[in-house]
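Review form for a predicted model. The reviewer records the input and the model, then writes brief findings.
Reviewer: anonymous (R2)
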Amino acid sequence: MKILKYAIYLFVIYSFTACEGIEDILHIRNNSDEAIYVYLECGNVDSLPLSPKLELFNFISADMKDAHGNTIEPYFISPDYRINAYSTETLHGGIEGRVFGKPKEPRFPCEENELTLFFITEKTMREYNWEEIYKNQMFTKKVTLTEDELKNLDWKYTYSPL
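Model under review:
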């Protein structure tokens, strides 16, 4: 178990240093009254996939210590694909962590010339498990964008409810 925790720790440290100079540049503006969850899928996709699933919150439970050696209690954090109401956030490569390049050198994250964004309300995420969301395709909006369209939008997309 200690080896697994150590491996995860090393992976996280490597992740922060391996992508130096690379930034996420796809910005999503949420113009709705509640938080939304954004699922990014490459290509022109009609439906949400079953896997990988979105989570309401991420649970941090590693044996972490503060600077004084005290144990830090486990806690929940919002995932990168959650965007608060009336705010703009950077989509960090979607659920699979695709990288969008640098601000001066944007890079489309998909081999296909399109990507699809599915928007799911926080209310839906709280009331249903991912299997139900998938089975009933419970997204509020779906948009497919090409690389040229994203360039024309300056890599900024505004979500408004239907």
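Findings: Residues 23-159 form one domain.
Further findings: The chain has four helices and eleven strands.
Recommendation: see findings above.
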